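PROTEIN DESIGN WORKSHEET
SECTION A - STRUCTURE
LENGTH: 308
TOKENS:
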């Protein structure tokens, strides 16, 4: 990582950990030192882990699969929702719905319920309800929108999770682990990094730190999506060129076949050389026979004239 990026991590306070008495021993490899009773995170390790995580998430996004962002902490809610909406990925910033991954079909039913309420408003069914029923349905729709509105586009299980503070989101971590879904997470000194596949040792309490890490992750995902788009455009262009070549080849074949058919028709209509000779030979005796008859007739007429 460049010096500029290293300084950005430093300025954002990514290196600040928790008090020494709250630490998790498994975080020892990522702790640089202790100062005034507070653990300081090794930013070089943070930079390495962040680079590893961004490379993996970029490949997932490039493959066209979804990444679910989870951050229900007060200081992370707005940051995550604002940045993740730009890359069109699902996120959870309110209460984590229990069984969201392990009981995914039930969550999908709740999302479909929200869609059915929207359909009621458009097809006129909603207008026929009483005032009390309208109020109840409106409240139900608002509650569903608050908890599940951000995952309405998630039609199947996500390929990965990105979590801010695994100690708070332990249920999400458990569900992902049970389903073998890889977890990328900001891990502070009071958390256990062995619970996730891609830990990023960092301060998960400061808004600046969260904004920086989430911003880098979102940039990597966006890059993967743009590369996927470019590849699809190239594939489309190649397919179009192949289709054009096939069309040209088919046209050339059709023209050749038409020319061959014309040549065959001309040959069929033209007289054969042998037939022409036969016709010539038959024609000559007929001419001779006709001239002989004419001479005989002329002689008879002459003889008749002499007698008279």
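SECTION B - SEQUENCE
RESIDUE ASSIGNMENT:
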């Amino acid at each position: 990582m460049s010096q500029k990026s290293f300084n950005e991590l430093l300025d954002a306070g990514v290196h600040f950990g928790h008090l020494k008495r709250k630490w998790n021993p498994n975080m020892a490899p990522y702790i640089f030192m202790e100062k005034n009773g507070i653990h300081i995170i090794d930013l070089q390790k943070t930079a390495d882990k962040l680079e590893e995580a961004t490379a993996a998430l970029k490949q997932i996004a490039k493959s066209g699969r979804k990444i679910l962002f989870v951050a229900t902490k007060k200081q992370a809610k707005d940051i995550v929702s604002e940045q993740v909406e730009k890359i069109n990925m699902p996120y959870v910033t309110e209460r984590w719905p229990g069984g969201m991954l392990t009981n995914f079909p039930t969550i999908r039913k709740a999302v479909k319920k929200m869609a059915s309420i929207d359909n009621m408003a458009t097809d006129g069914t909603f207008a026929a309800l009483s005032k009390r029923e309208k109020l109840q349905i409106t409240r139900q729709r608002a509650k569903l929108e608050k908890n599940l509105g951000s995952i309405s586009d998630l039609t199947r299980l996500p390929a990965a999770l990105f979590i801010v503070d695994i100690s708070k989101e332990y249920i999400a971590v458990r569900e992902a682990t049970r389903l073998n879904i890889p977890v990328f997470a900001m891990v502070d000194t009071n958390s256990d990094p062995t619970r996730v596949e891609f830990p990023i040792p960092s301060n998960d309490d400061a808004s600046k730190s969260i904004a920086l890490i989430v911003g880098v992750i979102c940039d990597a995902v966006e890059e993967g999506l743009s590369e996927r788009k470019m590849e699809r455009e190239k594939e489309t262009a190649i397919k179009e060129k192949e289709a054009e070549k096939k069309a040209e080849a088919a046209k050339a074949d059709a023209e050749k076949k038409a020319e061959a058919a014309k040549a065959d028709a001309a040959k069929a209509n033209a007289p054969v050389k042998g037939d022409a000779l036969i016709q010539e030979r038959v024609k000559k005796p007929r001419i001779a026979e006709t001239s002989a008859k004419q001479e005989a007739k002329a002689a008879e007429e002459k003889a008749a004239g002499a007698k008279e």
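SECTION C - NOTES
Helices lie at 3-11, 43-62, 74-86, 104-123, 131-148, 170-178, 207-269, 273-307.
Residues 167 and 271 are 99 Å apart (CA to CA).
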